[in-house]
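Iron ABC transporter
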Amino acid sequence: MHSKRNRNPKLLAGLATGVAVLLFVMLFSVLRGIQSFGVRELWQAYALFDGSNEHLLISTVRMPRTLIAAAVGASLAMAGVIMQVLTRNPLASPSVFGINAGASLCVVAALVLYGSSLTIGGMIPIALAGAAVTAVIVFVLGSLGGGKLDTARLTLAGASIAAFSASLTSGLILLNGQALEDALFWMIGSVSGRKLEHLQQVLPYMSLGWLVALGIGPSLNVMALGDDNAKGLGMRLKLVQSLAAAAVILLAGSSVAAAGPIAFVGLMVPHVCRAIAGEDHRWLLPYSAVAGALLLVGADLLSRFVLMPREVPVGIATALLGVPFLIAIARRRKHD
């Protein structure tokens, strides 16, 4: 009992430490790059803005990309936690289950139709619709043959839809050379070149997704016990599943609209955070949000220095980390 009582203060201290580290890395991300600044220049860029190149670089380039990386990282990580409970599959994430790919397909189709006139405000509902349609298709395919979600069918359905969406996306790009540059820049997954307006336009959807995810945290603990046990404990299973799916769509769709299809954040972060925070989703969700933000901000920061003065898109950096992580989890499941 004593150790149980002391667990929450330890978890709270760990979360506070994570937030402090995240804020430090975000500050470092704003200040460091091809051109580096000090804290004084950062303060002057907002308190004594004079329109200089340095102040413009800080306020219109570095700060927006850092804030967007943090928001997208947190959203994808939380979406991954929810999907792994919803599907009872440790390999589940928005990228692995094709939700990112479906959202990407719809956005690329819109880019082909409307070209550079398509704004981030226009991308948001398109990405959300693509994420929603893909999620419904994957879950319907995963439920065929018995009415209940089957983990193996769900995984195969997600992988198939992801491959199908990626093929259609590539075909659209190849057939429409005019939209090629815009589509490729967006599809590679990057927070570079994004503006503060991008974050302002996706933030309402992300915030709603965060609130829904945190609100269903206690219910996710019950859902993890299995459908029959959850119903036996009086949980309204369909309602919670619907809210969980809505949270994933909001979080994944808005992330794709803001930064393109960044893969593997939702796969890696929940596993790392479970080792620290345990299985209680009231703690796992906020831990994953902080860790996801930290991962993406850190990956974006490191991507500036790998091939300096050129930058590696952050989507490539997360893929390089995520593929061996996915293989390691798959191998561990095979041996369990």
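thats it. The mean pLDDT is 85. The two ends are 31 Å apart (CA to CA). bye
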